[in-house]
Specification:
Strand content: 15-25%
Largest sheet: 6 strands, mixed
Structural class: alpha/beta
Mean pLDDT: 94
Order of helices and strands: EEEEHEHEEEHEHEHH
Number of strands: 10
Shape: globular
Strand order of the largest sheet: 7-6-5-8-9-10
Length: 198
Amino acid sequence: MQINAIILQPNNPFKWAAGWNSPIYCDNRKTLSYPEIRNFIRTSLSSAINNHYKGANVIAGVATAGIPHGALVAEELGLPFIYVRAKAKEHGKQNLIEGYFEEGQTVVLVEDLISSGKSSLEAVAALKEAGMNVKGLVSIFTYGFDAATENFRNADCEFVCLSDYDNMLAQALITNYITESELPLLKEWREDPSTWKK
């Protein structure tokens, strides 16, 4: 919030690509421009991997926003880095996964943000299809949608996030980023984002 990577506008919603109205816009790419915050995220994601996914020997970024953070984490942990494209290249070797890896290696994915989990889980499926052992996924932020939890459960993939929507709202109140009167609208959105303010 201090660098406006998260913007809250309950009375002037953003429009998501999915067509949803949203009171929040989260741009984790912006954190890369601030060394202190970038370093905090790098060390926090690395700690999450060390605490939850011991034995990983490759770090993978989910295109596109997970790539820079994933590369920073791989550097911190001294591990190889690969990344998973949203779709295979249409030219050259038509790679879906970029970088060197071997079948049977153990990998942890790095993502910047989880909403439904769809793009993250497509990357998980691509790595499994390539013969890798996916230990789980770490991300900077999650909206905490029930659908995402269910999607990850169905895909048999664990995930750990540094922060979530509820914690963010609590911090926003403490720092006067939002007012008490805005809180009900912000909580209401999370319950049914697809129909909110339609």
